[in-house]
């Protein structure tokens, strides 16, 4: 005997499968239409325009700190004093990876020894979180301990207790604004507590990955508290590494990454980085300045992104609301910025939903990717990334997701 609900759900799923769609909601990539916004940047500079404001020839070697005028443009958005902000290569993931590799191989300011000589190095991983952060830890043999995310950021009571007593805990991953994947914005209180909490490790670091600092989906340009200033005030100036990039502002493959920190941390980082490069691509830095111009230019450019992607997020919410409002155990985030929606499904069904979707030609981020080692103990979190497909496809893909969720719920009875 099968329930009528199950029969209907199976019929709907078979119909979906027969359509043979081929859609992808896996990665937070800008769409071609978004990339088109910044493509004119590629034609800037040229034979008569390659000098920085101070006369530097950007075509040549050097300038490890990055172009001053680009740093000045981004300093307020990343909440870092301009002299403590580095503009680097094209990927902030690379900056984070390298920073941890440097900490492994050379003692951080305040460290008793380099991390490679510690018996155990642990990072706190708020979950759900960003899979590539977790991969960096896995690669370097840094263990991860999960901490639950709340709407205000990581559960600070848990964080404070862990870091206060355990000197092997050397860091925490944070995406403080429009977090990947829940869209959460850290409250001022969370930021203040992170900045000031006592830690057993003298070389504890916060990787403050502010990847979505200007990526608003509404008129409300959300601001968060200034971690670096608060940590400095609390006597923990060396605690934050502030990270950002223009990957989702200009071109995802040809943007600029930033690193901000205390002067001591920046000196440490530049000294070590000088062993791996003679300097970043300053022509790309200059191109960014010419294209974005100033703070207003940057805001204006981000409004154009918003016009393209906000309707896609609205479509996700519209389909989920129509299909699942009031369904027990099915919830989703309603982000006001960033690139992701978190869909929470009843315990034990996420893997099955992703499998059903895949068989129907709809690629979703693997269940578990939002947790270290790819293991979501509840098997209930699915990350949706609606920016890349065109709007009609986002709606179609979400209708497909709904069919898969219905079937997984019906199968479970
Ligand atoms: N941090 C977060 C939180 C991200 O979501 C992403 C992109 N998905 C990155 C970093 C990668 O940034 P980049 O392109 O600068 O390496």
From TrEMBL:
Top-level taxon of the source organism: Bacteria
Species of the source: Pseudonocardia cypriaca
Keywords associated with the record: DNA-binding
Q: Which GO terms describe its molecular function?
A: DNA binding; L-aspartate:2-oxoglutarate aminotransferase activity
Q: Which InterPro entries match?
A: AspAT_Ic, PyrdxlP-dep_Trfase, PyrdxlP-dep_Trfase_major, PyrdxlP-dep_Trfase_small
What protein name is recorded for this chain? Answer: DNA-binding transcriptional MocR family regulator
Tell me the classification of the organism that encodes this protein: Bacteria, Bacillati, Actinomycetota, Actinomycetes, Pseudonocardiales
